Amino acid sequence: MKQLVSVWFFIGCLLTVYGLLILYAGLRSFSASSGEGETMRQLHLPTWWGIFMTALGMFYVIHFRPRR
């Protein structure tokens, strides 16, 4: 009997990949920032969003992974 793979597993994979890409871009902009500029830039939002999306994606991947 074949078991179907949950769609949440694939959503978790996408969230993990997108989160890692956003985290990478955020860390690159964090290291390249000059310290001057907009207020929102000082909050490092892409870094925080990347961490959040990666953690949420990993939760979905682990929780809904296909079992044998």
What is the approximate shape? rod-shaped
Helix content: over 70%
Distance between the termini: 11 Å
Q: How would a textbook summarize the main sheet?
A: none
> In angstroms, what is the radius of gyration?
16 Å
User: Helix count?
Assistant: 3
Identify low-pLDDT runs. none
What fraction strand?
Answer: under 5%
What's the number of structural domains? 1
The total count of strands amounts to: 0
Q: What would you say about this model in short?
A:
It is built from three helices and no strands. By secondary structure, the protein is mainly α.
Q: What features would you describe in this structure?
A:
With 68 residues, this protein is mainly α. The chain has one domain. The chain is built from three helices and no strands. Helix 1 packs antiparallel against helix 3. The longest helix has 26 residues. The protein is rod-shaped and about 60 Å long. The termini are close together. The model has no long low-confidence stretch (mean pLDDT 88).
Please outline the helices and strands:
Blueprint: H1 7-32, H2 39-43, H3 45-63
Please describe the structure with a list of short key phrases separated by commas or semicolons.
single chain; rod-shaped
